[in-house]
Amino acid sequence: MPVDVEAEVLRNKRLSADYNILALGAPAIARVAEPGQFVMVRAGRAGVPLLRRPYSVFEVLRDQSGEAIGFSLLSKRVGAGSGLLFEVSEGERLPCLGPLGRPFAVVDPPEDAWMVAGGVGLAPFATLAEALAARGTKATLFYGARRASELFCLDLFERLGVRLVLATEDGSCGALGRVTVPLEQALVARPAESRLTVYACGPEPMLKAVAGLAAAHGRPSQLAMERIMGCGMGGCYSCVVRVRDSSGHTRYARSCLEGPVLRGEDIVWEG
């Protein structure tokens, strides 16, 4: 069950003019958070902004004995809520509700795991990479951004033994273009008999493309959907995703409850 806590700001690390990593002390959430789950966080007081904002759990923070003491969030300053999170100071306390949502299903060897991240869609993959490393599952991160200066935390994934495949839209690092370009090349080259699951998080057009590429090559995919969430607990229906059930009928699933992780093959893409 999720818990509602006042999490202490342990650190606020600025990565750039718009990106930051916020470390929050919240052992009750950190001890039970699974890869792909999220928290609802409110910055500011006096009801402004009114609603909390959803953020994927980025890292689980541990003390020297290995005990979970908190978690971090990877955030990009876009609107009022993320702007306030960018400015918070050490020692402040933020209301946090979590962990929420359906996590990734973590695969075991001999299956490989390919993670595909676009921009701030990197957020759920640090915990997934840690879980994969603990199982001995080979992992690759396909990570794309507009430019090299927006590729963050590469050393974190390298320490976990993750192979990195990078892409930038301006060609300043890795492959030129979107991250789906090297992903498609790798899927074509991958032996058909090998076992592989594709995980992805990022802008919805990217998720649609990744799901299509995975399906075209006979690979299952798990997508962490980035939908607007008003409550995070299924009450407001602001985060619905159209899906197809096992009988072929379509319906709307609340991504805060049945997701944010959904099977790519189940999603009925709009447009």
Overview of this protein structure:
The protein is α/β, with parallel strands linked by helices. The protein has 2 domains: 3-100, Beta Barrel (Elongation Factor Tu (Ef-tu), domain 3); 112-226, Rossmann fold, CATH 3.40.50. It is built from 6 helices and 16 strands. A hairpin with a 5-residue loop joins strand 14 (240-244) and strand 15. The relative contact order is 0.14.
Lay out the secondary structure.
Elements lengths: L2 E12 L4 E7 L1 H4 L7 E4 L11 E4 L3 E3 L5 E9 L3 H8 L5 E8 L11 E7 L6 H11 L3 E7 L8 H6 L3 E6 L6 E2 L3 H10 L6 E6 L2 H13 L4 E4 L15 E5 L5 E5 L6 E3 L8
Parallel strand pairs: 8-9, 8-12, 9-10, 10-11, 12-13
Antiparallel strand pairs: 1-2, 1-7, 2-6, 3-4, 3-7, 5-6, 13-16, 14-15
Low-confidence stretches: none
Helix content: 10-25%
* Quaternary organisation of the protein chains: single chain
**Number of helical runs?**
6
> Averaged pLDDT, please?
94
Q: Based on helices, strands and strand pairing, what is the structural class? A: alpha/beta
| Superfamily (CATH H level) name of the largest domain | Nucleotide-binding domain of ferredoxin-NADP reductase (FNR) module
Elements, N to C (H/E): EEHEEEEHEEHEHEEHEHEEEE
Question: How would you write the strand order of the largest sheet?
Answer: 4-3-7-1-2-6-5
Assess the beta-strand content as a share of residues: 25-35%
Main beta sheet strand tally, sense and closure: 7 strands, antiparallel
CATH architectural category of the largest domain: 3-Layer(aba) Sandwich
Count of strand segments: 16
Quote the CATH topology of the largest domain: Rossmann fold
What overall form do the CA principal axes indicate?
globular
Question: How far is it from the N-terminal to the C-terminal residue, by CA?
Answer: 36 Å
The rounded Rg comes to 18 Å
**How many distinct domains?**
2
Class of the largest domain, according to the CATH hierarchy? Alpha Beta
